[in-house]
# Entry
Amino acid sequence: MKLLCWLVLCLSPAAFAAEQLPDVAARLTAVEAAARSAQSAGDNAWMLVSAALVLMMTGPGLALFYGGLVRRKNVLGTMMHSFILMAVVTVIWAVYGYSFAFGGSGSFFGNFQFAFLNNVGAAPNPDYAATIPHQTFMVYQLMFAIITPALISGAFAERMKFSAMLLFTVLWTTLIYFPMAHMVWGKGGILNAFLGGAIPCLDFAGGTVVHITSGVSALVCALYLGRRVGYPGEGFKPHSLVLSFIGACLLWVGWFGFNAGSALAASGLATSAFVATHFGAAAAALGWIAAEWMHTGKPSILGGISGAVAGLVAITPASGFVKPFPAMVIGLCAGAVCYLMVVRVKHMFGYDDALDAFGVHGVGGTLGAILTGVFATNAVNDALKDSAGKPLPLGLVDGHAGQIVNQLIGSAIAWALAIVGTLIILKICDVLVGVRVSREQEIEGLDLSMHGEEGYILES
Amino acid sequence: MKKIEAIIQPFKLDEVKEALKGAGVDGMTITEVRGHGRQKGHKEVYRGQEYNVDLLPKVKLEMVVPGARCDEVVAILAKAARTGKIGDGKIFVFDVAEAIRIRNDDRGESAL
# Structure
């Protein structure tokens, strides 16, 4: 910017004439405005694409990934869990959700200054993103609020009543997601490292906000609803790994919007997050497949895609803070640890987390949050500065071991909020509408019993 | 008239069809079925959960032939369907009391 101004001054001989000064000032202003406008155009283009990419993660990404993993009779019901949130959460977000997450400057939740999207227009909100329209920031954050409750549906798949699922979602986003998003990303939030938080927790794109809250809530749901009829036993094979494969690959691509978009600008930081995301996913896919190959003797496509998703989860909080090789270390750890959780620990305890929402998102999210405290470095992200303007050390690799403690506290708050909040919400839903379908409905399948339709009509 | 019912490996279907066509067998009905005889199933593992799959995909062919040709057709069918490994399937032969062509009410072997 400064360079540009000097350039203009030097190239304009008239600038040295005192009587020409007002003209120069006017031209300078015009150049500055043009530069701002160009930056805004670039940033806004990337952020709108990112918002669309994150929506694509829910539908069709997650809907296909989860839809393929259930039995044939539940494919539509499972896809509906993802799809309906694209509609429900959007409406809540417009009415009060955005404001409750990003309004005001409270420690734990927002206020209602942006209710009904009041004052959310083309002018940027400099608290969050100074170069893009406030509305772009709002709609980008909405896509995160949509996918987070959709992730939970993996735990209660094939047995939750649709009406209860809707009520659960409304309460869950309101009582758990919006406050958690405010604490970590909202102005004045207690865990916000960049906007005045008391406990500066590093969460670039949602390790605590998205993955710990959804994954831990998923475990609570699985325990509260109990096992599916007949589980564990024969007949719970995924009905179409082809669908799951397509869904997982869409998730991988969409995740670039999720993580690189979290830079909130088309910047070098966005590139760094993009690279870390990709490297983390790749290493995690290999980590899971290697563990599986050694353990069962065969590398599977389901293992590969599960590992990639686990890696994407784990790299999410770290993506804007770590270099490519630490990203691969995080991914590799996530692949191996989530594999152990899903194939060993889950069966040891016997709970029915149907599609492993806890094993992948809860465990991968927690692992990623902690490892962010290890590998975060100001060589990648120098937004945190001391009073003299020098970048502060971020993680253990910068010599700041205390960050791991901050990460643990942030994770613990997310765990606690998810456990207590989800239990209360499930109890409310159970009393009001009943959370679980009848045994007959479950055996018939949710497609027919809840929605009156079938996914595959082969004789037509 | 004899009805021949053969349960064979799905991947042998094309070979068997060609062989039967070569022998002048014009009609047959094919169904995709699942089942097992002495062949053991296999193990599948999905995220650590093991499933034993014992009902395996097979193809069932049904055809009715003149009694005099039955042994010959069975021999051709068996030869084409054979790999020599467990799981090749079975052939069953039944007596057929009557055959009727719906279009013109032909009866007996002329209806085949």
Remarks:
- The two ends of chain A are 65 Å apart (CA to CA).
- The interface with chain B takes residues 232, 234-238, 296, 298, 300, 302-303, 306, 342-344, 346-347, 356 of chain A (CB under 8 Å).
